[in-house]
Every structure is written in C-alpha cells, then in structure tokens.
C-alpha cells in the first residue's frame, strides 16, 4: 500500500498534486465524494488507480446542493474511516476543503453554474436547485484538481448526465468516466444514506432494486410500452408496505433523460422512493433481449 497525503487548502492540494505528477507525463484521476465512504466509492477509487498515475479523492459535503429541508446537518461524517478506505483503495491525495475555501463570499452570494433543463427534471423536480449546486461544486473541484479523468458512479445517473453536460458546455479539459453501481448482496445500491435506515426499513429498501428487476423482467418478456414497464416497477414499490413511498419511476433516454415513447437500444429506468424518512434512488439500463451481453444485472 502507498501513502496518503491529506490536504485542506487549495494551495496544498495543487502543490501535492504537482509533486505527485512529477516531471514526466502523468494522468491524474479524480474521485469527488461527500465522504461517509463505502465500497461504491472504493470501486471508483480502484478504477482510477488502475488507469491513472495519480489518484485524488475529495470529501466535501457541499451545502449548495442541499435544500433547506434536506439532511445537510445530519449527513453522515466518518473522516477517519474515509481516510482508511481511500488509502486501501489506492488513493494518493485526499482533499478535504472547508466551506470557507469553497464559498469564500458565503453561499448567498456564490457564483452558480446553471445546468438548464437536464437538471430540472426527475431528481431536480423533487430537489429544486440541487443540480445547480452539484454543477457549481464540480466546476470548482475540477478547477482546483485539474484532473485528466473524472470518475463518477452510475448510481447517481442524472448527476452523471448533468456533469457530462457541464464538462462539454464549459469546455472543461477532462474525460468523464461512469462506473457501474455497486450493490449489497440483496441488490440494494450502496449509499451513504443507507446508514439512516432502521432494520425494518433496510429490509423494505430492497424493494427499489426489486422494482427495477421486475421492470427488466417485463422487457425480457417482450413488453415495449414504456407505461407498462414503469407500471411493473411501480407495482413492486406500491406493494412493498407502508414504509415505502414511491417518488417517481421514469423510463428515459440515458443521454438526454427525455421520456421514451418506445423501448429501443438505449433506455434507463430511474426511480426514487422514500423508505421511512430516507430518500433513496436507484436505476437500471433496460435493453431488449438481443442486447443482453451488455446488460447490467441486479439481484432478484
Ligand atoms: P456521494 O459521496 O454520494 O456524493 O458519491 C460520490 C460518488 O460516488 C458519486 O459519483 C456517486 O455516484 C458514487 N457512488 C455512490 N454510491 C455508489 C455505488 N453504490 N456504486 C457506484 N458509485 C457510487
């Protein structure tokens, strides 16, 4: 195992990354996170390690992407465990900026990157302003780290689409790579927010991946009408008992996130649901039978 440099200021970050880059050509991989790391984050770091010379991880709970009624204050914070996971997964530099560094003039007067329509639908409709907060912090983190490759999880599918758009439109010189969802053995997508779930909620939360699986099974059985595919998933969530309340289930194109009129070569089913008071998201690409070789599996 290598060593891990933990830095706080942008100056220390830049100096450390520059010295890790060295004199020759070196690829810097970057994994931005909000901490409370788990194996999903570790997978992003491992991917970066296997492809890049220098691996930078940031842990920063970005206040600008939380709504006033959201869980900013109670968001889990596990700094010691985070450092251990980053080191074990192969990170070289762990950057933990402060709010003063990221929003020097205060949140109310911050420069904000607006995403346009792609950030206003689905998660954006339930969480107004969320993706402007995401776009803003990602632009700042990229400006500070200046990586060659940015690693993001497909778990936050819309976030990945939003970041691809801002990287393209702001002409940011970085390659964006999406990493498939890491799941628990029963199919639940790993998430820092799973820590909020009481035991009976944890059990009920498996209904999200089951709903995706039901929709996928309907496509495999030949269903091509988006309404029927969405209904297959919604039925599972609705039948999961009083702890689970569906927020949305949507079948969309993976690049544009626009609703599909028919299932073709590219389709992704996105869903969000509350389990108790915890809001969880999940998604699965759905492909007709002849595309099975590239399909991502979830547990039944
Ligand atoms: P977060 O700390 O939740 O903001 O997540 C940081 C990064 O890790 C984002 O790119 C997420 O999409 C990614 N991530 C979180 N959970 C998972 C997971 N279960 N599988 C793959 N990537 C994940």
Radius of gyration: 19 Å
H and E order = EHEHEHEHHHEHEHHHEEE
Helix content: 25-40%
Indicate the proportion of strand residues.
Answer: 15-25%
Say which molecules are bound, naming each kind only once: adenosine monophosphate
Oligomeric grouping of the chains: single chain
- Count of helix runs: 10
Low-confidence stretches: none
Derived structural class: alpha/beta
Number of E-state strands: 9
Distance between the terminal alpha carbons, to the nearest Å? 36 Å
How would a textbook summarize the main sheet?
Answer: 6 strands, parallel
On the 0 to 100 scale, the average pLDDT is: 94
Kindly report the spatial arrangement of strands forming the biggest sheet.
1-4-3-2-5-6
Q: What general form does the structure show?
A: globular
Task: Describe this structure as you would to a colleague.
The chain has 300 residues and is of the alpha/beta class. It has helices at residues 10-21, 39-51, 79-89, 99-102, 123-126, 130-145, 157-169, 199-204, 206-220, 226-238, and strands at 5-7, 28-33, 54-59, 93-95, 149-153, 175-179, 244-252, 268-275, 278-285. It starts with a strand and ends in a 15-residue tail after the last strand. The strands form two sheets. The protein has a six-stranded parallel beta sheet, sandwiched between helices. The mean pLDDT is 94. The chain has ten helices and nine strands. It is globular, with a radius of gyration of 19 Å. The structure holds adenosine monophosphate.
């Amino acid at each position: 195992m290598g060593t891990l440099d933990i830095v706080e200021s942008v100056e220390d970050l830049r100096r450390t990354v520059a010295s890790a880059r060295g004199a020759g050509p070196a690829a810097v991989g970057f994994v931005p996170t909000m901490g409370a790391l788990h194996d999903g984050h570790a997978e992003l770091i491992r991917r970066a390690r296997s492809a890049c010379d220098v691996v930078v991880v940031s842990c920063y709970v970005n206040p600008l992407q939380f709504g006033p009624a959201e869980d900013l204050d109670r968001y889990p914070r596990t700094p010691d465990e985070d450092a251990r996971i980053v080191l074990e997964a192969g990170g070289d530099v762990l950057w933990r900026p402060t709010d003063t560094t990221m929003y020097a003039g205060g949140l109310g007067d911050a420069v904000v990157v607006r995403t346009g329509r792609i950030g206003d639908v689905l998660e954006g409709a339930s969480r107004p302003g969320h993706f402007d907060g995401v776009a803003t912090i990602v632009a700042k983190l990229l400006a500070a780290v200046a990586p060659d490759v940015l690693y993001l999880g497909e778990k936050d599918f819309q976030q990945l689409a939003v970041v691809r758009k801002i990287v393209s439109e702001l002409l940011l010189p970085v390659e964006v790579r999406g990493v498939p969802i890491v799941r628990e053995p029963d199919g639940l997508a790993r998430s820092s927010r799973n820590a909020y779930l009481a035991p009976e909620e944890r059990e009920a939360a498996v209904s999200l991946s089951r709903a995706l699986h039901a929709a996928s099974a309907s496509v495999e059985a030949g269903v091509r009408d988006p309404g029927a595919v969405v209904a297959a998933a919604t039925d599972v969530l609705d039948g999961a008992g009083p702890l689970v309340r569906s927020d949305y289930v949507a079948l969309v194109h993976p690049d544009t996130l626009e609703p599909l009129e028919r299932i073709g070569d590219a389709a992704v089913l996105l869903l969000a649901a509350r389990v108790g008071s915890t809001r969880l998201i999940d998604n699965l690409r759905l492909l007709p039978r002849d595309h099975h070789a590239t399909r991502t599996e979830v547990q039944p």
